[in-house]
Each structure stands twice: as C-alpha cells, then as structure tokens.
C-alpha cells in the first residue's frame, strides 16, 4: 500500500484505513457466531437409529448401560460416511425387530473405525481489542523505488 501523503496527514489516513480493515476482519471472523439460526442436520438413517435406540430404552427393552454410549455417539456426532451401514442396520431391524443385534452391529462399527465422542473446543468471538497493527511504513516518492520484496 502506498500513501501519497506524509506526516500527520499520512498517520490520519492510515488510522482511517486501519479502522475500516478492523471492521471488515471482525465481520468476517465473527460471522459464524452472528448467525444464530444455523442447525446441524443429521443424516436420515443416523437420526432414525438414534430414535430407535431411545424408543427401545423408553419401552424397557434396553438397559441404560447398553444404550447410552451408542445413543450419545449417534446423537452428538455427524457420521455421514457410515450412512450406508446405518441403512443396512435399519433394514435388518425392520426385518427381524432385534434391537440387540442393531446395538451389537453399531458397537462393532464404532470399534472398527474408532468412532467415539470427540472433545470439542469452544470457539470464541474476536474482540476489536484483540486485533493489533503489527507494522506499517510511510513511503514517499523518493524511497518508493528502494523497497524490494524478497521471495523465499
């Protein structure tokens, strides 16, 4: 960036440019936090399996110790890559009505691919005070030709 002015006027112009840049950076970085209406949509078969497990638990067909770990993974993780396997498990359940076999299949799948709950760090919004000007210089016409950029 080359400013055609020097001294106080150059500083004033730089300050205006810096303020506008900060606003744009903050808008871009904090945009995900500003959008409150976003929903995570789970794959259909994964959602149906979680519902089946919950229903079987509520009806007393499954113990809490068996159902809870698998239900948590299905409910909290987004497992799109295994949607075909989930569809097979649902078809098997519809044919045989054996929820224990479905739980066993899901447990084997989770162990095979090491699927589990992941620790999720909470992202934080960026405050305007967190942005810092690292460096700036004023170029005048006589020293504009002296600035050489080295590419490594």
Question: Can you offer a commentary on this structure?
Answer:
It is a single chain. α2 runs antiparallel to α3 (about 65-75) and α2 (about 45-60) packs across α4. The two termini are about 20 Å apart. It is rod-shaped and about 80 Å long. The chain folds into two domains: about 5-40 and about 125-145, no CATH class; about 45-110, no CATH class. Helices cover about 60% and strands about 0% of the residues. The protein contains six helices and no strands. It has about 150 residues and is mostly helical.
Counting DSSP H or I runs of 4 or more residues, the number of helices is: 6
The shape is: rod-shaped
Number of strands: 0
Alpha carbon gyration radius: 28 Å
- Oligomer state equals single chain
Strand/helix succession? HHHHHH
Number of domains: 2
Name the structural class: mainly alpha
Give the % helix. Answer: 55-70%
- On the 0 to 100 scale, the average pLDDT is 79
- What proportion of the residues form beta strands (DSSP E)? under 5%
Q: Unreliable segments (pLDDT under 50, ≥5 consecutive)?
A: 143-149
